[in-house]
Design a protein that fits this description.
Layout lengths: L1 H9 L40 E5 L4 H10 L17 H7 L5 E4 L4 H12 L2 E4 L5 H5 L6 E5 L4 H10 L4 E8 L13
Antiparallel strand pairs: 1-4, 1-5, 2-4, 3-5
Length: about 180
């Protein structure tokens, strides 16, 4: 509750309700209703040749989750303790991005969602190990942008101190996610 209150204060969100029920496990459901006066970043808009990239580093969440599930504790700087949102980067780059989404189900699963939403395939620029591509709950962003905007996106990533990793380009075809669903 304290974490949700802190996040609401950080982002100017007003909490207006909630629901409490008995259960054998803790379930938290959050609904956000908002308005925007700018362009909204959605999953649609990917075009052939667009560059696909993600922010930050991925792969540690799956390892940390296994450790937690085995009764261990994670470092106080873990994503599970204090997620790092890429709000400033997305605000600065938003008008240059074709589409994007958070990496919540793993890079490969979320690339599959972008692929399906836009009827596009993915041409990878380098091999991504399966454990890295299947790790979910990353609290990072998957984005796509036109090749002509690459220099601008890289400059804004440096300005906001946001690591950026290019994974491939959109192409004709479809992408098949080979990761096992991991929702628990």
């Amino acid at each position: 509750a304290d974490g949700i209150k802190d996040a609401a204060c950080d982002y100017g969100i007003e909490i207006i309700g909630g629901d409490t029920i008995g259960n054998v496990k803790l379930d938290i459901s959050v609904t956000i209703v908002s308005e925007t006066d700018g362009r909204t970043l959605t999953r649609q808009g990917l075009k052939n040749g667009d560059i696909l990239a993600y922010t930050g580093r991925i792969g540690t969440s799956a390892r940390e989750l296994r450790y937690l599930m085995a009764g261990g504790k994670v470092h106080s700087k873990s994503r599970f303790v204090r997620p790092r949102l890429r709000q400033r980067f997305i605000q600065k780059t938003g008008r240059h991005l074709r589409c994007g989404m958070d990496i919540s189900d793993g890079l490969f699963s979320d690339l599959g969602k972008l692929s399906k939403a836009n009827a596009k395939g993915i041409a990878f620029t380098k091999k991504i190990p399966k454990p890295l591509g299947c790790s979910g709950e990353e609290y990072e962003m998957l984005i796509a942008f036109p090749p002509g905007k690459a220099r601008t996106i890289r400059r804004l990533a440096a300005l906001t101190r946001t690591p950026l990793r290019i994974v491939g380009r959109a192409k004709r075809g479809k992408f098949t996610n080979r990761c096992k669903a991991h929702h628990f």
